[in-house]
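We read letters as residues; the integers encode the fold. Take this protein.
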Amino acid sequence: MNATPLRIAVLLSGEGTSLENLFEQIDAGAVPAQVVLVVASKPKAGGLARAQRRGVPALAVPRKKYPDPGAFNDALHAVLADYEIDLVALLGFLSPFETRGRFDGRTLNVHPALIPAFSGKGFYGQRVHEAVLESGARYSGATVHFVDAEYDHGPIILQEAVEVRDDDTAHSLAGRVQEAERRLVPEAIRLFAAGRLQIAGRRVRIADPDVP
């Protein structure tokens, strides 16, 4: 385990419940990390207030202000350049993030389904759970993966299946998927901090902690 806490930038678009969970895990000593910056794609994102309450720099880079994804990412990277960042975590970030070499293999995303199912452009938030229910699938789940140039496509780090119940609504299914996300995100960050994640093509190998 690294002696120096991992320095994380969190990018989000909504209320920041995954961010809050990460804060709590860090406070409990379960994740050897420090959130040093929170960036939101929406000025009124609740996650900004969560960061501010903890004294973490919190900035909005409104997606609507930029004509194309490239210009938007120019603005994001300009903000990130002012901080020493070890890992970028996309926790409910609903806009494309370009790693641009600088953050290749150092950007994680969480998706509320078992990639490659119910993933890609247009699959976000409640839309994912509605699509799962409409399909008749018996299982959904959560995925944490490295980010590449495509939506929800990079090498998978961790997944957890969630059973779809006969009486599920999109809301009830989302609640159980979020519980899985709250377990997977801290664990993925712990593994990254320990240097145990090895990308090999489309796969991520988790190294044995006892093997140098």
Q: What stands out?
A: The CA atoms of residues 61 and 75 lie 7 Å apart. The domain at 6-197 is CATH 3.40.50.170 (Rossmann fold). The longest strand covers residues 33-40. The chain has a mean pLDDT of 95.
